[in-house]
Amino acid sequence: MLKRWCAVPVLLMALTGLARAADCPELLQGSLPKLRAKESIDLCQRYADKPLVVINTASFCGFAPQFEGLEALNQRYKAQGLEMLGVPSNDFKQESKDSAETAKVCYANYGVTFTMTEPQKVRGDGATHLFQVLAAQSSAPKWNFYKYVVDRQGKVIANFSSLTKPDDPEFLAAIEKAIASKPLKP
């Protein structure tokens, strides 16, 4: 009898996990390792029902100074629920192979406080699931500092090239639209 009762919590946890996966938008399924940390980011748990900006970054790119403007956006909109996720990538040969150096550029040089992942592939067949879905919903990044604005339902509502500065009015309007979007669950 005791064995049966011990199985109930395990079964309930498994069913809860399945229900959560079913509720989670395709874009947010999976996890990514956090930059210079021992933890992983469960994308669904962290970002479900939240407006999100995803940026593929590179430490040695000429667009790296955009980190400052992106951090300013993070500070400006985080009280309204906006989340930002930076995903370093060496797909364009401008990211360090040493994640300690990547972290120094982001955190020390530019003062980034939004979440950053360990470097990931963001283009092609080997791209991380997040970027495969971003590409399917809009387009794959054509260079570093490509910006995706995702609504609370996990849908890309706009994407912007590296040339788009963080204070661009169209980019800001897309962020405000994502913030105003309705969550999946009422």
From TrEMBL:
Taxonomic superkingdom: Bacteria
GO BP annotations, alphabetical order: cellular response to oxidative stress
Signal peptide feature range: 1-21
Active site: C61
Keywords: Oxidoreductase, Peroxidase, Signal
Stretches assigned to the Thioredoxin domain: 13-180
GO-annotated molecular function: peroxidase activity
Keyword Membrane in record: no
Family (UniProt): Belongs to the glutathione peroxidase family.
The protein, known as: Glutathione peroxidase
Native source species: Pseudomonas kribbensis
